[in-house]
Amino acid sequence: MIIFDKENRVFTLHTRSTTYQMKAGRHNVLLHTYYGPRVTEEDLSYLIRYADRGCSPNPPEAGDDRCFSLDTLPQEYSTCGVGDFRLPCVEFALPSGSSSADLRYAGYELRPGKYALEGLPAFFGGQEWETLVVLLEDAAARVRVELYYGVLEEQDLITRAVRVVNQGDQPLSLRRCASLCLDFQRSDLDLITFDGCHMMERCPARAPLRPGVQGVDSARGTSSHHHNPFVILCERETNEDYGLCYGAMLLYSGNFQAAAELSQYDSARLVMGINPWHFSFRLAPGECFTAPEAAMVCSPAGFGPMSRRFHRSIREHLIHDPMAGRRRPVLINNWEATYFDFDAGKLLEIARTAAPLGIELFVMDDGWFGGRCDDNRGLGDWWVNREKLPGGLEALAPQMEELGLGFGIWIEPEMVNEDSRLYREHPDWALKIPRRDPARCRNQLVLDFSRPEVRENVYGQLYPVLSSAPIRYVKWDMNRSLTDVWSAALPPERQGEVYHRYVLGVYEMLDRLRRDFPDVLIEGCCGGGGRFDGGMLYYTPQIWCSDNTDAIDRLRIQYGTSFCYPVSAMGAHVSVSPNEQTGRVTPLRTRGAVAMSGTFGYEMDLSKTTPEEREIIREQTAFFKEHYDLIQKGDYYRLTDPFREGPYTAWAHVSPDRRQALVTVVYGSVRAVQSFLTLRLKGLDPDARYRVSGEERSWSGSVLMNAGWPLPMTRGDYQSLQLYLEAE
Ligand code: DGJ
């Protein structure tokens, strides 16, 4: 519910359990007054304190009032160069050469429904949303800034976006344009970021705010394996079930920055948006720039409810799922089974084993096109390699279908190898800086996706391939960071636009793919989880979580990922043991239990499995299908933290009506002497009585949640347990 109190010029955004408020204050400065647990209707600006602070300047309208300073007031969208020295949201390069920005309240608009952003991903929906647009103006710079707020009351979700319009008669540049600013009049907060590297993505890192600026960013052209565009600010005591926390996600797949500043007089500010590093966007008179959307959830009751709000909002209002209402297929991917060494015969051999095991889709990974016999060549040449696949996809896909398997393919449209026809014909289409030899990574270069003709060529190659056969699934991969970013198509003063235009180009092509092939399930991938963000999820309903398929490492990766992103978005596969990345030996049952807490699949040469293993796989796919809705659409509860060296990791999926639950427990390496372990469950109906799989009698939800469930002792490393609970 959005309420505007005209008399006090206060905007209050109520969600089911939170309240967000801003006020057009004195001198038309837009002040942030509150974000937290839901409160009654009040003008909360009484919380803002004014004092004459020595080094804090006063705007000219304040006259003799030395207590009014942009430097100390909580701002809704911070400016720079005119008195606020903290993290700015916006910075211009004005025709005069000045970079200052001074924004004042100029009006508002209330709209039913949810705003959309042209060319950019955004949460969507109908009348369950409300939109507020607050207008700000910089009279001297002749710039209008529109702040967009979308309120999804039921899920406590507030989205934000920003549009900047050049209202002057000369061009100007934007050097910084953040999507989200949150000012707190307190300093006792922790910042949690989700960090890592290739094969160990999104590990939570928590630290108290310290004076100055801290945060994470990406300058790799993707959101990156290294830091995720999702952060949490929380109180010191906040944990899964207790305490105040604020989650903030940016729906953007390129360079981003999430920075928190603890400033003088104990105030804190969080700013999130496109990374200002190497960013500058030129606006001709009348032109506008739209910053990517950000979304926030405040939870007064810990991380668990916050995550569940994000999960549901993402599932229902961000992901366009072509399978909507239907189960997504259990897949088999040939990458770890064959790498580049395959032909149609080998793929069909794996497929013939897969189909009777309950697997439903065959994904042919990298290596099927051009001269791609290894990772040094072929990218850019999107025609079928007839040596490997003599009949082409038009023969292979129907053969798969006859076996009862849908067929999907891998692509990496943004890349080119120098050893390719595309590169030989268009060497200037790769990102390269004049007179510099570009850095190679996996021996490939990045195509300049900011250029429409480059995208057109690649799409023009892919379209006939995708139309040539019944293709049900596409894995869109992207295997290197951007370097040498310079576009031959833009003048020097516009080179600061290339990173962003690249991302817009990727979005445009994904959108086209989605529209031209509406029934095709697209899985995002970026050397595993290097572009796992809300922006990609808008186009690709699932994303390959990590190139690390080791079930025990995956406990951590999937745990960290779950703070923002739902299980139904996390690509997860069972692979061989010993694992290809770690050499670790794990039971097949455990690998299955971990992978089915994602979008379930296999990535191994099934033709080499034993009859016993095939029986386990058959049981796993049947179990997954039976409990699909519970796992993929249920509420997710983290029961332990795998980063604390406990004896086991556990989580649960609980149906929204709390009638069913699936609890998964994965033990660590075995010990001769084991403690008596009791797992207390979460999310159940305290008054319902639950039957537990394998047991004769039932227990009440309150008993299972408070007294707990005795865990059996185990033999052998990394054993697991799946308990299915159903209310009587
Ligand atoms: C990186 C992906 O994450 C892998 O799953 C695989 O598709 C390879 N690329 C293929 O090159």
What does the model show?
- With 728 residues, the protein is of the alpha+beta class.
- Helix content is 18%, strand content 31%.
- The chain is built from 13 helices and 37 strands.
- Strand 26, helix 8 (534-539) and strand 27 (542-544) form a beta-alpha-beta unit.
- Helix 3 runs parallel beside helix 4 (393-403), helix 9 packs parallel to helix 10 (588-595) and helix 10 (588-595) packs parallel to helix 11 (611-626).
- It binds (2R,3S,4R,5S)-2-(hydroxymethyl)piperidine-3,4,5-triol.
- (2R,3S,4R,5S)-2-(hydroxymethyl)piperidine-3,4,5-triol is lined by residues 335, 365-366, 410, 477, 479, 525, 527-528, 544, 547.
Q: Gist?
A:
With 728 residues, the chain is α+β, with helices and mostly antiparallel strands. The chain contains 13 helices and 37 strands.
